[in-house]
Amino acid sequence: MARKFSDLHCHNHMRAHLHMQEKRSTYEKKDEFSPWTVISSNRAGYVKGKMGASYSQCDLVKAWNGNVRLTFNSLYPLERQFVLGLDKINSSDLLNIVVGVSTHDKLPLRDLIQTFYMRIPRKTVNHVQSEKYDYWESLQREFEFVLMDSGKRIDCNKIHTTGVIRRIFENEKKRATKFRNELWAENARYLIPESSEALAESLQSDDEITMILTIEGSHALGTDLLEKGKISIDEISKRIQLIKNEWKVPVFFITFSHHFNNNLCGHAHSIPDKGKILLNQVNNMNKGFTDHGRRIVLELLGLDNNLQKDLNLGYRILIDVKHMSACGRQEYYKHIVRPCLAKGDKIPVIASHCGFSGVKTLQDHINCFHKEKDDFSDESKKYNAWNINICEEDIEMIVKTDGLFGLSFDQRILGITKESKKTKRNGIELLWDNIEGIAKSAFGNPNLSEAEKLKVWKCMTLGTDFEGLIDPIDHYPTVLEFELFSNNLIFVVEQARKDPKAKHLAHLKSREDTEALVDDFCYNNAEAFVKANYPR
């Protein structure tokens, strides 16, 4: 039987939605307005494994053909800072000043960059730049888009080729025949379960994709308007209740922070040095929770101020700590997760698309905020030591709460530096370094029992961040390479378990054990987690 795959964090619909959202009526007339529609990719970028902007990494057709049968599809209203110029040029370098000034959103070069780099149509860029753009409204449109074909079986998908010249010289049918796995799906279906019963039924079927909805960034609730006095915190609370009570399907978890200030909790430093020429994420970066943030995180979890479950607050939406600053995570564990665990309310900690930082504690991360330059690594020089990644303290909390870690496929997040970018490390070795680093951390942690140490292998899965404009690991640029990845992973684990010093692999006695571990990582762990925690 073919190996199945899951992905704890990806954006299956993102490319199609961003491309079509501002011209909906046009695409509806051509019967193309659907999450299944493939926006034709630049194959050169795909073949070379370049940054995932010119090609799709995980659209539904690729997911279907790559045997991804469980996907945690993240709704993400694009943060406007990505398409706006800098308010202030924080540089004395002449080149940086010229670039910063010339790429302000009031000038055409900015639109040109977004259109060609992010492959977002100019009309969409203009909308995000405009005063009309509203995160909450965008979230609801995105939700309606992914819901529209849930439960429907399609005969085949549509393909949209961008650009007049490409449409003249390219034949979509011929391309679909030549690159079938990339562009064509037949008799395909995805389902967003309305309940745990529907979830269980969907997971039993290999003939459909089970899609779980998540949200990336609390800004999606419209929290940017808090600092402008254009919305009250009570209105944010009402929006949470609307999601819980009126949306047809539940939201499983929310990535609480993202790249920029959301007025609720500080975000981890995430943008490399070159990106600072165009983007400024300093406001509230590496800070902790605000008073509003403490209220909202409790309401999402369905807890009152005394950490008691409050049925009036609705079902529990879990919290994803990826992008949350080390200060925020430190507060979250100290004031919510640990106290609740002590009284028997286990709140699973999710880190949906991360790497291992190689750092011991969150306080160590906090002490090193000032060192987070492009290639800042841990002492072993294996890992990206920025606080956007998880440390040993995070791993302990994930294990103790039966949480889940998703392995990002972003090479920078996983520890690729300028020097190692073109080396053989930029492949399965890099991914295994991060997986093994997490396992060794758990097995070496005196705060974990022997049973808990072994449990770390049930707390890891894929969390690629595909379609999040990442620069993927060489050899695995899309979900179509998942099978190759799994076979490569079996090989390296088989080699590693033969080392008598590898206590973290001592439970593997045969190749069959190794294959079972890889099956768990690729699919079973995520399935068990969602079955245990689905909110309805």
UniProtKB/TrEMBL annotation:
Superkingdom of the source species: Bacteria
Q: Which organism is it from?
A: Algoriphagus aquimarinus
Name of the molecule in the record: Membrane dipeptidase (Peptidase family M19)
